[in-house]
Amino acid sequence: MPLLTPSRLAIILVSCSLLSFFWTFGLSQQSAQPEPVLPIIDHYEHKNVHSEPLIPRPVIDETYATAPTPTPTAHGERPAESDDGRWNGKATQSGKTPGPTETGIAEFEEDGGRWEDKDKQGEGGKSGKTHAISATLLKANPVASNAHVMNATAVITSAAAPTHTLDKFCKDAQGAEHVMIILRTSKAEIGKLSTHLRNLLACVPSYAIFSDHAAEFQGHPVHDALESVSRGAKRKHAEFQEYRIMDSDTEHTPDPKKMKELEKWKFLPMVYKAYHMNPSARFFVLIEAETALSWANLLQWTSRLDYRIPYYSGARGIIAGTKLAQRGPGILLSQGALRQYSKAYDELYTSKWEPSLGKECCGDLMLAKAMTDAHVELYSSWPLLQGEQPHTLDFSKKVWCAPAVSWHHMDAEQLDVQWGREKNWTKQHGWSKPYLFRDAFHDYIHPHLAPQKANWDNLSSDTKIIAPKGRQQALRQEANRLRKIAKEEQAWLEREKMGSFTRSLVAAAPRADKEKDKDKEKGKEKEKAKEKQPPNWDKLAEKFAHAADSSQTCAATCEDVEDCLQWRYTDKGDGECHLGKVLRLGAKKEEGKEKDEGMWKSGWLVDRIESVTKSWACKKVEWRFYQ
């Protein structure tokens, strides 16, 4: 009988197959190490639900005595995660676990410190420890080698630029090394940077300046935000004509109006490049030349946020149904948000985002749409990030106890004043006490309040009472009629040479009339006391029909309205009386400068304002912001 029969071969084959199956799907699964589970990071009080609950591991930055040279990072690469000890407990093995940092908000202290960064726990339990580092200006060097280099997937590298010395005033600022400032400008307005460079940016360890050209300004590198826009887009869209001229002639002075049309193209590549310049930064703040930023308030704010949560935050606006963070007040982006954005940029910029830019109006609108594609939601941070100037903001109870992190539309002089106040406040109160809108009111507004100011528009706008057409002419006719009657009476008295008795009768009549008038006024006051109710501001024009007769009647009307705080009057047309129940300062209006507006007079009820603002006492700082 042969050794290998067909039946024996079949048995051997089946046995080998079974051994292979169990080896592949059985033993290897038992010996394999389980994947670590990332923690789910919810927002404070579990009010916000994110589309992606598992937040990517953050980039861990190591602290050096001097600033290290950033490692070049190519498109599509993710920051290294292999040495991230916070996920496996290594960070807590070297010391005792500390308690949470005080936030000043009682309900957050009850969380047991779960929001406290675990990398701080490895520092011997001293979560408030700070490190001295050299201030570094970051530079991007795009690699150019072929026709595809200029598109959105160009490789980005990072290199350390010469360090700059921080202002002595800023040496005690905690957390400054974790925040990067991104300043957007253009060649047409680059002169405005001088104020920022000697004030705010002298305090910031990490920042980058982006423009529509690559250059150097006062020794600081300026990066071309448009460099990575594809050549096809630059040829196709007419707004790049000025850019092409500027590129070929470095001495060319661009037209500011034409350069504004290029602003929308800067946002997406600028944000992407800034992230790859400094991927270990925890927060990135986008500002422009006219944005005033409180460095102390910003650092206190970001220290209360978890940078692993994808924050895209700013003063909310709506364009064509899309909610966005307005560019002027500043836009706050967390590392968690930019990790998701960077991945989406690699996938969608060339195919979707850049083709859409030609159809959209604004860069902040396109950034909002890109963040939506990256599954990053918008958080409205009003009033912390503010689109107004101090003299145009409506001060009310809503903003009174909130920190003033930013202002907008500030010229060079206003930026200097704001930074001077910031330094004085911080020197007096330290880096841990926020500067509130209440404090801004006492600094900027209160010293200028007065019962009446000529040639001044204080922007009162809660209601407007307009005199009917022909009202001033009717008032003049009535005044002329009364003067005529008075003259006739005087002439009659002299002509008749009345005796003392007749004169006494004539004199008694007016006294009797005056007594009657006083009785009527007392009766009206009693009626008003009985009918005292909150005023309906929508119907004030009906109740006070003659408020626009003059500035005096306008001021008197404000006094009669219970919660009116200020008024303004213009002689435009037959007169307009504007009343306000929020506090604004406004600005001087030169007489005759604007023909259609007439002459303005304004006033404030100073005693009433003192009483109202005292009732707005701040029991806690309103750091919270809402979706």
From TrEMBL:
Basic and acidic residues composition bias: residue spans: 75-87, 111-123, 511-537
Which Gene3D superfamilies does the record cross-reference, listed alphabetically? 3.90.550.50
Q: Which residues form the signal peptide?
A: 1-28
Which keywords describe this protein according to UniProt? Signal
Which domain of life does the protein's organism represent?
Eukaryota
Q: Where is this region: Disordered?
A: 64-129, 503-537
Q: Residue spans with biased composition (Low complexity)?
A: 65-74
TM stretches of this protein: none
Q: What is this protein called?
A: Glycosyltransferase family 31 protein
